[in-house]
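INFO batch 0412 | record 1 of 1 | parsing
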Amino acid sequence: MKTALSFILKGSNYPLGSDESLVWQCLLNNKSFQLSADANHDRWIGFRVFYHTLKRYFGSDKSFIRRENGDSLLLTNVHGNQERTLDYVQRFAGQTMSFVVMRANMAGYQRPYSGFDFFRFLGLSIRICFRCLFSSNDRANWALIIKEIFEIDTVLWLVRKHGISKVFDFLPYEKDANLMSYLLRKENIEVTFIPSLNPLKDHNRIMVADKLVLVTPYQMEEYKRIFFDTIRCGSILKWPPEGAYSIVDRYQKITESTPKFDLGFYSHGSWVRRREGHIGSDHFMQQEEWVLEQLSKFLKQNNQLKILILLHPREKKMELNEVRDYYERFLGNRFELSPLEVKSAEIFDWVNVGVAAYSSIVYERLFCGFKILFGGQALDDFPIEKSTLSEIFYKNYEEMVEKILSALQQSNDEFMEHYHLHGYNYKSFNLEIGEMKTTN
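INFO prediction complete | emitting tokens
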């Protein structure tokens, strides 16, 4: 019987290009946001992760919810709207989730190891701790392996005990998702990956599962043009984006009206993320501040235009004066802030043309049928040249000006038609049940 513990103990000596080698590549090379950017410099990070994992192993479990008899399990996390996630997966999977497991709350009343296996787990964990102590190479990712093998083997224990035959993984961005899928499939359990609506290049260049949900045309372009060899899934399912389908009813009922603001800047909150020590936040902050600088120049030359700053949830938790001070550095007093109590996705119709550096709101706004442009400098081969998103992406000030002035004169439908974006609109999706397309 295969376990994550036995897989790691066996080591990484597998043929290049095999599923097993791809699993190891993800474990050691993929970024994880479970630890701060400083973790790679912390020699004691292995011991810290080991300590917290042992506390969970002997703690009381709050992660496992049995809803009703059945054979399907949803793997999710504690962040976000759990009821919305559950409704989304059930609606488009076309079946009820019998069990829900929240990985971040997972503790060990199930006790996945007994007898000698528990001592093997302790021995491997201590070896990893000392590896992290003396070697900085992949230090944070090695430390996380301690908690990952505990979590995966706990899921395997649950699956075997309750006779589960289908697992829907809402967390395929985690670097151990492919290891869990690999082991579940060895047990003849069908695994469906449900990535977020962000580009696959961010966290999902490699995926090994039975089924894969794609929620934007751009993800399909990535799969076909770049990641066909490393995304190994038997079939592709087309679902709408989770965050957007739940609010589209509002926009189906309203006709196009005059927006309150000419422009809306959709913040990714990268300056706050950088302060909190998030991995990759420096790069995103540079891109956002570049866009704000270009917008400042544009507004000085078009002082009749009104702009709304649509705040990221992280910004909404801060002192409002501090947030205002940050944006005044770029835009002076030329802007208004969105209401704190209203989600950005609920007021798409307030803004004529959305502008961003990069944010998942790009897809949500297109899904609901509204205009948006985004851009930046040196975004790591994003978007793909001649892709559906490349035409609404600006790389310099001149392109931004040209695209904004053109979009301001177009209706939402004219904009979608001009840039061939109808595939992103809710009208191209079946909002009742997912559509399956077999690819191999």
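INFO post-check: The CA atoms of residues 262 and 367 lie 20 Å apart.
INFO record closed
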